[in-house]
Specification:
By secondary structure, this protein is mainly α. Helix 2 runs antiparallel to helix 15, helix 3 runs antiparallel to helix 13 and helix 4 packs antiparallel against helix 11.
Length: 405
């Protein structure tokens, strides 16, 4: 106490710096950051454990994919918030797709196969029109709507809404012919209850705030478009998985494409769609005049993060399948919420966290039901071949011998 009194006597104007309450707040902030880092470490440890049967390289790339999901959203949120307030998500998204396109051009140039950049390389005009072009429409708009939603709602809330993506992906797959078991629909219902709970809490907290409503709308539409493009991309990367339940199973399935090949085809129309959207809804002159050296560097950082996210996201679809990729990707929600609360100063009501937990439970229940249903269908041909009274066994299709969906 005597030392404390002497310091106050010598520096009377610094008495406010010695406030014990300030020290308590600083200690609490430090504990929050440490807790966030602990949660992040546990998430990545869980990913490595879940994918322990896969090569180390695949596990590392998947962890980086989840990391880029978080960094891209946080960088876009920072770009659209004060002091930068650069709210031209359309033009930034076009730059992201242009960066991916340039990486694809460089990749196939190094491999000496620039024919992969031509639309004819997909196999047929019909396949390009019904798969690549819809992806080019849904992918840029989903990114634009997601980035614009971040200017109206927090990154944590936007990430929680994004947890519905695996469910909407399942619904779209079912519409296109895939069977969903009854227990899977129970998972859809559980996740729907959690989403409704979150929306109700946020609506009651901000009835008069139209920007919150706009943020929820943009984020929801982004989820639907994201599900559409994931299913279409999965059909290009693994067409045999969708031929399994097709009506004309005797017809040979189209050849599968590599993830770099798919991006080389869809990147140019994605750039065109993003630029068209930006030119209709955003002022190019105002965007140019708003640029500064700090904003330029921040935009370049988003380009690096978004390029890695787009390429690794396609790699995850190729490696894990559409549904597994979505469920692994949703682990970024917990990381995003942790960083939003600890480093961005955002607040999440406890009710919202409860709703997010309900959504995650629904997703887990749904994925478990899908897993058991796949095991049952994969074992069905073997059972039939053992109990057939006479006649040769039917030939196995690609769908019967698949070990990964």
């Amino acid at each position: 106490f005597s030392c404390f009194d002497r310091r106050l006597h010598v520096h009377p104007h610094r008495a406010c710096d010695m406030d014990p309450l300030a020290d308590v707040d600083a200690a609490g902030a430090l504990q929050g950051k440490l807790a966030a880092l602990l949660v992040v470490g546990l998430i990545f440890g869980g990913i490595i454990f879940i994918l322990r049967s896969r090569p180390l390289r695949a596990r590392v790339w998947i962890c980086i994919f989840v990391s880029t999901l978080v960094t891209t959203q946080l960088l876009m949120k920072k770009l659209g918030s004060p002091p930068y307030s650069f709210k031209f998500a359309g033009y930034v998204t076009a730059l992201h797709f242009f960066s991916v396109w340039m990486v694809c051009v460089a990749y196939w140039s190094l491999h000496g196969d620039l024919s992969k950049l031509r639309p004819q390389s997909v196999g047929s005009t019909r396949r390009y029109v019904f798969f690549v072009l819809p992806i080019a429409l849904s992918l840029p708009l989903s990114v634009v709507f997601n980035n614009q939603a971040l200017t109206f709602i927090g990154a944590g809330i936007n990430g929680i809404i994004g947890t519905l993506a695996p469910i909407t992906t399942a619904l779209l797959s079912h519409t296109l012919g895939r069977r969903i078991p009854p227990k899977g629909w129970a998972g859809v219902a559980i996740a729907g209850v959690g989403a409704f709970f979150i929306g109700l809490v946020e609506w009651n907290d901000s009835k008069a705030n139209g920007s919150i409503i706009m943020g929820f709308t943009l984020s929801g539409v982004s989820v639907l478009l994201r599900s559409s493009k994931v299913v279409l991309q999965d059909q290009l990367l693994a067409p045999a998985a969708y031929a399994e339940d097709g009506k004309n199973s005797a017809e040979p399935s189209p050849s599968s494409l590599s993830f770099m090949h798919v991006w080389a085809l869809q990147a140019p129309p994605c750039v065109i769609v993003a630029l068209s959207y930006a030119s209709c809804w955003e002022d190019a002159g105002k965007a140019w005049n708003s640029l500064s050296s700090e904003i330029v560097w921040l935009i370049l950082a988003t380009c690096v993060s978004a390029t890695a996210l787009n390429l690794l996201g396609m790699y995850a679809i190729k490696e894990l399948g559409a549904s597994s990729m979505q469920i692994i990707g949703k682990l970024n929600t917990i990381i995003l919420c942790s960083f939003s609360v600890a480093f961005l100063g955002e607040t999440l009501p406890p009710q919202v966290l409860v709703g997010a937990f309900i959504i995650i439970c629904g997703i887990a229940y749904f994925e478990n039901a899908q897993h058991h249903d796949r095991l049952a269908r994969d074992s069905l041909p073997m059972v039939k071949s053992q109990t057939t009274p006479s006649g040769p066994c039917p030939p196995l299709s690609l769908g019967m011998v698949r070990t990964r969906d």
